[in-house]
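Re: that chain you flagged

S.,

Sorry for the slow reply, it's been a week of failed gels. I finally had a moment to sit down with the sequence you sent. For the record, here it is as I used it:
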Amino acid sequence: MNINNQRRLNYPTLVIHSTDNSFCFGYRKSNDIKSEKLFIKQFDNDLCNNLIVELNKFISKENLKKVKKISVSIGPANFNASRLIVVLARTISQQINCPLDSFSSFELMAKRIASKNNIFTNKQSFWIYKKLKRKGFIAGKYEISHDEENNADLVIREKVTPRVVKELESKELCFEANYKDEEDLRELLDLANKNILNTNINSWEKVLPLYPISPIN
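Prediction finished late last night. Pasting the structure tokens below so you have them in one place:
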């Protein structure tokens, strides 16, 4: 086993995720899936306070101090929830001095959608979209590739970060966004672990919630 793989196995990882109606935590003491712990809860009236309360129940202070990597989903989802979990993730990252990275919610579901629709061709791309209440869509573009060590393993690359589009291109593959709490939380844990050596300590500064219909975007 090379040094990088050995280091990766010993990296406790914490992830924080939210959808349109839930928030979630995931923790892996090591790269072994048997060491993982998941928490999923539907929104209630006081999400801000309950995030902290539930996190304190989910992970002990001792284990939190040992975390070597945090990853957070940044949306598109419920914007208030995305904003709160990003603030929480940034705060913890600063306090325990560990790297933070982020992934869009669409990127977390992309592999699942590709597998469900039998998209296995290398370099084939597709869009994931969410219809807006008024006009247009939020859409992101994803490309299939394969793990260099195991060609059978799908790897998804986000080619276009989710953004507002007026209409979808009829000639391209398009699939509606479909949140799956447990599956997407595990994907976030997997992505966090794979990217564990590629994020610097001050990376929290660049992590912001993704809100494509914001006036400043």
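What I noticed first: Strands lie at 13-18, 22-28, 36-42, 69-73, 100-103, 125-131, 137-146, 154-165, 174-176.

Talk soon,
D.
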